[in-house]
Design a protein that fits this description.
Blueprint: H1 2-13, H2 18-41, H3 46-51, H4 57-72, H5 74-97, H6 102-124, H7 136-152
Helix pairs in contact: 1-7, 2-4, 2-5, 2-6, 4-5, 5-7
InterPro entries: Mpo1-like (IPR009305)
Protein name: DUF962 domain-containing protein
Keywords: Membrane, Transmembrane, Transmembrane helix
Length: about 160
Amino acid sequence: MALLHSLLAEYGESHQNPTNKLVHWVCVPLIMFSLLGLLWSVPVPAAIQNISPWLNWGTLVMVLALVYYVRLSGRLALGMVLVWAAMAAALRVVAGAAALPLWAICLLIFALAWVGQFWGHKVEGKKPSFLKDLQFLLIGPLWLLHFVYRRLGWGY
């Protein structure tokens, strides 16, 4: 748990400006959503697809990230599972209803959300944490979720 608190504190050091925080509340979930959608769009072998339409590269990455999250906090990992489930359901809806292919929509969202992230850090005057350590790409979503847990009075 000390590692989690240390990582959240270090991530928070470059996210003090209210504008940058707001940008992160919008852009981090959009980046997660779009990255999952891009991975979801990569074809999987037919034998795997026949088992379940939910088995794809996006769910594989979710499982791998979940292993990392469980090591940091089981409770936050459970929250991430719920976030991912909602995003996966939304991806299925978008994929079925959109005029463009899912990968194209997600690529546009991904690019715009990263532009937003870098703009937020320009406003902040500090470099993004992941430039120092790539694991902060996984810490960003937990950083947001830990605020939700705090607001609800839940331990993590």
